[in-house]
Design a protein that fits this description.
single chain; 325 residues; mainly beta; Porin; 12-stranded antiparallel β-sheet; 3 helices; 12 strands; elongated
């Protein structure tokens, strides 16, 4: 029986930032090639295998819902005060995040069934949170700075100004990551398992997004032309379905001046600015599992285009162009 390890690769970034999206070309390897002494021999003697090195440029857009694990506000130079234990009582009912990432990826086929890769790029993030804020002025000494803030905050909460308000935060960051893919095939069918880690560090606020991703996929290769013609480049279409699990941890800490406060909350904004307010936020994905659908078009052994989308809990679209050598 002829068994062909046909690998593909699509690291999904978080921004993540998310981040995420490259697919390696398919490969077919006869059983006798497995006896070759080195991986380089296999790449050289079997033209249906991918060339050992690859460089690709891709773009990823992600819309996802986040849950807030921790929200704290303090003053610059002082220890942070947990929310809602002291000054402000804050509740975030909904957080949505949109990320756009441009990635450059380098990869190498260490074995016919094992690909190693590293990636780097830039990420833009826009987060929108729905928050309600209240306070208890009776907990502080009358006339103290905290009492003044608490009294104003509670008055605005009672009037409805601080209920279900929208806060927006924008940021740019640098994304880096590493990963590997394991693969196996049977005839024109293939299966793979991709695992990678990425981290995005942001410039405006002291923050980062860290993502561990685990993605099994199964698919089929369609040979359109050129498979058995020595002087004609292969033209193949690869389609697959799969699922992705992401462990996303998002942490931010910085000045409240970097958070866009609605214009109707000028009193609160002025009070917080006078105290040099600092905010700390920790978040994670609401739904870590997502279904995947993707495809790749191979024009030649050196060039291919890839795309993948997620249409369940996390809405994402990714595409990339790759050159192999």
């Amino acid at each position: 029986m002829r068994i062909n390890p046909i690998p593909y690769l699509l690291p999904a970034l978080m921004l993540s930032p998310v981040l995420e999206a490259q697919i390696l070309p398919s490969q077919t390897m006869d059983s006798q090639d497995k006896t070759k002494s080195t991986t380089q021999d296999a790449h050289t003697e079997d033209p249906s295998t991918p060339l050992p090195f690859g460089v690709s440029l891709g773009s990823v857009q992600i819309d996802q819902a986040l849950s807030i694990d921790y929200l704290g506000i303090g003053h610059q130079g002082q220890s942070k005060q947990a929310i809602p234990s002291d000054l402000l009582k804050m509740h975030a009912s909904n957080t949505e995040q949109h990320t756009e990432t441009t990635l450059l990826k380098l990869d190498y086929w260490l074995k016919p069934y094992l690909n190693l890769y590293a990636l780097a790029g830039q990420t833009q993030v826009t987060s929108v949170a729905t928050v309600s804020i209240d306070s208890a002025p009776s907990a502080y000494a009358v006339g103290s700075p905290n009492w003044i803030i608490a009294r104003n905050v509670h008055a605005q909460y009672t009037s409805g100004q601080l209920q279900n308000i929208t806060f927006t935060r924008n940021g740019n960051g640098t994304t880096k990551g590493i990963g590997f893919t394991l693969c196996q095939g049977l005839g024109q069918w293939f299966a793979l398992l991709d695992t990678h880690y990425t981290r995005t560090d942001f410039d405006v606020m002291q923050g980062s997004i860290s993502v561990w991703s685990f993605s099994p996929r199964i698919g089929h290769r369609f040979v359109l032309s050129g498979e058995r013609e020595a002087n004609r480049p292969p033209f193949r279409l690869n389609l697959w379905v799969g699922t992705r699990y992401q462990d996303l941890q998002q942490n931010f800490q910085g000045s409240l001046s970097n958070v866009r406060i609605p214009s109707n909350l000028t009193t609160l904004a002025t009070l917080l600015a006078k105290t040099n307010g600092q905010i700390t936020v920790k978040q994670h994905l609401k739904s870590p599992w997502n279904a995947l659908l993707g495809g790749q078009l191979e024009f030649a052994r050196q060039f291919n285009l890839k795309a993948e989308t997620s249409l369940t809990n996390q809405k994402s679209v990714s595409c990339a162009a790759e050159y192999r050598f």
